[in-house]
Amino acid sequence: MDQPITHSCGHHHIIVLLEKLFPTTLAFNLPPPHTYTLREYERTSPDQLADRIRDAEIIIRTVVPIGAKALSENISPKLKLIAVVGSGTDSVDLQACRVRNIMVANTPHCNTSAVSEHAIGMYFAVRRSIPRCHRLLQAGEWAKHRVLINLLYGADGQAPRTCRGEVAGVVGYGGVGRKIAAMAQAIGMRVLLSGRKDEPAPADRVPFDEVIRTASVIFLCLPKTESTVNYISTKELDDMGSHAILINVSRGGIVNEEALVRALERGLIAGAATDVFVKEPAGPGDSPLLGNGVQGLNLVTTPHVAWVAEETSLNYLEILKANVSEFVNGTPVNLVA
After folding, report:
1. 43 counts as catalytic
2. Catalytic one among 61, 118, 132, 251?
3. What are phi and psi of 36, to 5 degrees?
4. What range(s) does the D-isomer specific 2-hydroxyacid dehydrogenase catalytic domain occupy (predicted)?
């Protein structure tokens, strides 16, 4: 039987919330005799990080990156747990945590419904050119030109498909991928579950290259790792059909942003949508997917908000509290490092 993990920091714990995500003050139900002090910040910049975590045993982060410098013993000597709000931990230096035996816990499967629904919403927005129609209608173009149905036609001259004519390729089959696949199938799409890139596909998957060539809408919902950076780049975009659209609700960097803009400009694909960017928060100076240069493209962008929902916040709160309480109790859960 596993023995509880003991901590050398005593019974009073300094907990630092680096970004205030929740509308109410966090309250942890720690097992006696443990007590805590909670310090909450609306947001924390990388420049503010060191001062705020100097005496923390537990830090809770959502956005600010936690790199090797912040994890050095002279900056965060008492740090024992990083509680990540979200499933992705690519903004935390896990190797530096392992060197110092700092635990990292995430909050998995909390945003599955919200992210999946956002992805399907993005599909409709791109396939039906809804943002472009809205923008030109507001600018008076309908009254000027009398007809704007050409907005819905792709560069190849094809009218948009309905769901029954779509083939959905799902790349990444965790909680979000499974939910997207079920939703896509429910609205009439044929679904292909992709195998991993450059690996033989198991019996219940379709080879990655075949999915890229065959799917008319590709949903990306895979974690960011060294092997998934630029997972979709020039070759994959060239191999996609001119009627295909790409939806990214995973992580920035999985799609090569410059290659995506080129593909849209050349009409190699019909459209794209992304909720994530290589650099976040992103502005026109940070990403080729933003700014005046892409205004005429069938491109939909949202500022990493796919996860936002009442259900998501309640799930995050429940699992975050459990992660902290179980850590203090010596039985940590949801560890990724």
Report:
1. no
2. 251
3. -155, 160
4. 38-334
**Nearest Cα to Cα of residue 148 among 121, 126, 130:** 130
pLDDT digits (tens, 9 = 90+) for 17-32: 999 887 777 899 999 9
Domain edges within the chain: 12-110+311-328, 112-301
Query: Which strands make up the sheet holding 167-171, listed edge to edge?
Result: 190-193, 167-171, 217-220, 245-248, 271-274, 299-301
Distance between alpha carbon 124 and the CA centroid of its chain, in Å? 19
Question: Average of pLDDT values for 22-45?
Answer: 91
Classify domain 112-301 by CATH number. 3.40.50.720
Question: What average pLDDT is seen over the chain?
Answer: 95
- Please name the residue ranges forming H helices in 28-111: 46-53, 94-99
Q: Could you confirm whether 196 is annotated as catalytic? A: no
DSSP label of 129: T
Catalytic annotation, pick one of 280, 310, 311, 318: 280
Instruction: Indicate if 257 belongs to the active site.
Output: no
d(CA 246, CA 285): 23
Query: In 3-state terms, what secondary structure has residue 165?
Result: helix
Query: pTM for the whole thing?
Result: 0.90
Tokens of 273: 């949508």
Catalytic residue among 7, 109, 178, 304: 304
Tell me the two tokens of residue 203: 């019996």
In the chain, what is the straight-line distance between the N-terminal and C-terminal CA atoms, in Å? 21
- CATH of 12-110+311-328 given 3.40.50.300, 3.40.50.720, 3.30.70.100, 3.30.700.20: 3.40.50.720
Q: What is the pLDDT of residues 220-232, one digit of tens each?
A: 999 999 999 999 9
Per-residue b or e along 103-129, where b marks 16 or more CB atoms closer than 10 Å to that residue's CB: bbbbbbebbbbbbbebbbbbbebbbeb
